[in-house]
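Our preliminary data section would be incomplete without showing what the modeling component actually yields. Below, a chain of 182 amino acids is followed by its predicted structure, encoded as tokens that our downstream tools consume directly.
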Amino acid sequence: MRQAIGMIEFTSIARGIYTVDQMVKIAHVEIVTATTTCPGKYIVLVTGDISAVESSIEVGEQEAGEYIVDSIIIPNVTPAIFSAIVGAAMPDYIEAVGIIESFSLSTMVIVADAVLKATSVAPLELRLGHGLGGKAYFSFTGDVAAVQVGIDVGTALAGEKGLFLNAEVIPSPSEKLISSLL
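Predicted structure:
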């Protein structure tokens, strides 16, 4: 059972790969994703029980040394976050779409979790730096009011964490847009 998620962002790909190996050897965690991101960085997201994730991230921070950009731990993460990270979340019906964009990958994971916990929306995608010049975005759907609440919660949190870029609400997206989101 996934109870917590932890993430570390590295400036060095080589150190990132080495560190992931150390992280999974020290604690019983699963790798959600461990991959390169733009511009030439590396990220790892691990999941497991809270104490295992904390131990894994602690070792990761120590091993990362000067190559760490940021790290986070979210205890009791919403399970919907996992399908959003792998881009496998596509609800049957899309009424409105919300998009929040940030220059911080780890902030966007925190924002996505908070949005999903705060209101009745469904995740579409949580894109972390792939082909985005180091940016991240979270897209989600629900009724217009719920999407607006999600935008309000997410932008407030992203603004506190820094590196917030933009947010948009699309009340009635075109079918052509929806098909491009798939």
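The mean pLDDT is 90. Helices lie at 13-26, 50-64, 80-85, 105-118, 144-161, 175-181. Preliminary results of this kind motivate Aim 1 of the renewal.
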